[in-house]
Amino acid sequence: MQTDWDDIRLFLAVARAETLTAASKVVRLDAATLGRRIARLERTLSVALFAKSPQGYALTEAGQRLLERADAAGAMIHAATDDVAGQGSSAHSTEAASLTGQIRVGAPDGCANYLLPQVCAQLSAQHPDLDIQIVALPRVFNLSRREADLAIGVSAPTAGRLTVQRITDYRLHFAASAEYLAQAAPLTTLADLAAHRIVGYIPDMIFDRELDYLADAGVARVALASNSVSVQLNLLRQGGGVGVVHDFALDAAPDMRRVLLDQFSIKRSFFLIRPAAEPGQARMSRFADILMQGVRAEVARLERRAL
After folding, report:
1. How far is CA 306 from CA 20, 61, 119, 249, 250, in A?
2. Closest CA to 182 of 232, 252, 255
3. For 131, which of 28, 185, 200, 276 is 20 to 30 Å away at the CA?
4. Strands 162-177 and 266-275
């Protein structure tokens, strides 16, 4: 049985995008042609690789097994080509220095909204043939399902074949709009929070214990809640109350004021997470290093401005 490697490439695109429409944009084939190629691959293998529905293409058990093996094969191919490219003459050094292709970065929405745009815009300017996709989700990313090529998390996972690197620490404090503070009850101790509306996460949608900030302050009730950091910040900017805010986000909200600085301060960390064996290992490692340096510098810059 002969399988066309190009069909495997198309299979990987659909497995990662989970819809023909999204995958077709990546591989630059129309969705109908892509669907026929996937059907041909399934006939060749005599097995269903996807469960099709109006919501998209979900991997079957056989499809998941093929994904794991195809990823491993792709990693070996890319490692070999990276090694050969590394032995090339110095005439190609400028070309090799530029990152190309598509890389998808997953991140919690605080990082995705207030750090990654600056960092990735600069990366894109430096590497014009690189396509960077930022996926902001208020939950843990599933790298095995290729929701992203790499992800930024707020805690280090302990399971799975993953490479985990700590990027940097960041800090959070209580904050509220200047207008709200001018009209609200005094706020000088944590006990005073009982007289204020609290903005925060929806309690049963906190996807990582590191995000349960209000528990550290003894706050039980959240009057205005969202699973999105950016929505929480906008609630605070509209005078919704008092909430915990990333110091690095305050540059985007000049009307906000930090409060209770001597009473409450939280330090958390960002981690870069990626598969231990991945296609284009050298390329992804280089991108990861540049991304981490950028995030580190941006957190430091924005936290200095918040002082």
Report:
1. 44, 49, 19, 9, 6
2. 255
3. 276
4. antiparallel
